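Try this one yourself first.
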């Protein structure tokens, strides 16, 4: 009997458990139905206010995005111009080391590290999930070293040009980097030449060529800009080669993003800048010691016209402004595109010569004025072509994306 009772209890226990187990889903099912009614009722109540809330949020995001674009554009224009003027001031007041003038353009990259660590983790998970096939460490090392050495050479040539040329002439010649960028992009990145692009190339080429015949004679310029014809030619050639190197750097970087790394996120851009700047800085330090210029830095500090403190502050703020300029470029590249960033960068071309007239009393001769007007015209043609390309790209993406088309249709209503 006891055994029978135990069997009866064991037989009834699963049945009881089964009954309880079946009761829970029914309750859950009823609660889901009730919640579904409430949820549908809640959504129905908000169906009238939803589009208005979305529109307000989209406007806020748009305004905030434009605010960031304005801030980054100001960093590019103001800090880039200030860094160029301070670089010239270094030579004006007694600085003689071209390697030191180059070092401040790249050596301040540790300032970017806080910005790097703040922004990089945001894209880390997404990048790895979307692009599981990463390039090898050897390939990345080769890319960073080669581009870093190219940067070091280009910035050294920029320092040579800034040493020999008035800052207004130097800035106008630098506008040719836009033409070189388009030319190298044609061969490396399959850029298509349009009438506006060809017009920009021709105008920028003529603008730089006119400056070859610019006579920087001692009778016309102040003592600070008196240079010999030989030094003028050296400065001109160095600046043209530096602009070509800069255009090649932009085209190669775009090619690396497309063919090697196969993505262009903020983290990838930051990696490219940090590591190439590190390589370039090391190469410049080697050049500083190999050339023997480091021996004269102590005397240079003592003989600086405005004093030792001014010497240190000049180099420090030049390095800081160049890195703030880089942050502005990163911001514009992240918010809009690298092409838009390049377009904003070249807007400094008319700005720097006007500031040079004010601060360094550079003479704006007739040929230089014509050169500046042609450069501005070429820049406008370039910007208009970028506007056309950007508009066509957005139209194509809208056509292929039904959700985007629906949202745009609702906005226009």
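Now uncover the answer:
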């Amino acid at each position: 009997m006891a055994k029978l009772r135990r069997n009866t209890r064991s037989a009834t226990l699963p049945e009881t458990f089964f009954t309880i187990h079946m009761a829970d889903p029914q309750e859950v099912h009823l609660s889901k139905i009730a919640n579904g009614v409430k949820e549908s009722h809640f959504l129905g109540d908000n169906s009238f206010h939803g589009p208005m809330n979305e529109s307000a949020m989209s406007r806020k995001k748009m305004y905030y995005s434009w605010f960031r674009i304005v801030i980054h554009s100001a960093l590019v224009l103001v800090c880039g111009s200030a860094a160029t003027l301070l670089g010239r001031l270094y030579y004006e007041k007694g600085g003689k080391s071209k390697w030191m003038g180059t070092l401040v353009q790249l050596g301040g990259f540790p300032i970017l590290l806080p910005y790097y660590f703040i922004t990089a983790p945001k894209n880390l998970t997404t990048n790895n999930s979307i692009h599981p096939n990463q390039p090898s460490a050897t390939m990345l090392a080769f890319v960073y070293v080669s581009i870093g050495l190219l940067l070091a050479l280009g910035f050294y040539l920029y320092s040579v040009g800034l040493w020999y040329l008035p800052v207004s002439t130097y800035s106008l010649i630098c506008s040719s980097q836009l033409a070189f960028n388009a030319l190298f992009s044609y061969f490396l990145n399959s850029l298509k030449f349009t009438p506006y692009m060809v017009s920009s190339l021709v105008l920028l080429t003529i603008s730089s060529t006119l400056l070859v015949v610019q006579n920087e004679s001692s009778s016309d310029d102040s003592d600070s800009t008196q240079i010999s014809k030989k030094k003028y030619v050296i400065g001109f050639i160095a600046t043209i080669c530096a602009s070509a190197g800069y255009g090649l750097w932009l085209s190669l970087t775009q090619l690396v993003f497309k063919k090697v790394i196969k993505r262009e996120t903020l983290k990838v851009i930051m990696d490219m800048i940090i590591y190439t700047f590190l390589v370039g800085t090391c190469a410049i330090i080697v050049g500083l010691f190999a050339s023997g210029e480091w021996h004269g830095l102590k005397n240079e500090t003592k003989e600086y016209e405005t004093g030792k403190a001014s010497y240190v502050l000049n180099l420090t703020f030049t390095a800081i402004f160049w890195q703030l300029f880089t942050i502005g470029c990163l911001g514009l590249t992240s918010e809009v595109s690298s092409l838009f960033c390049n377009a904003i960068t070249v807007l400094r071309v008319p700005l720097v010569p006007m500031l040079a007239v004010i601060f360094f009393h550079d003479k704006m001769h007739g040929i230089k004025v014509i050169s500046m007007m042609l450069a501005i015209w070429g820049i406008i043609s370039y910007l208009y072509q970028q506007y056309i390309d950007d508009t066509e790209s957005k139209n194509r993406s809208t056509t292929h994306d039904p959700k985007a088309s629906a949202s745009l249709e609702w906005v226009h209503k």
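Discussion: Residues 257 and 264 are 6 Å apart (CA to CA). Residues 1-48, 123-130, 215-226, 402-413 have pLDDT under 50 and may be disordered.
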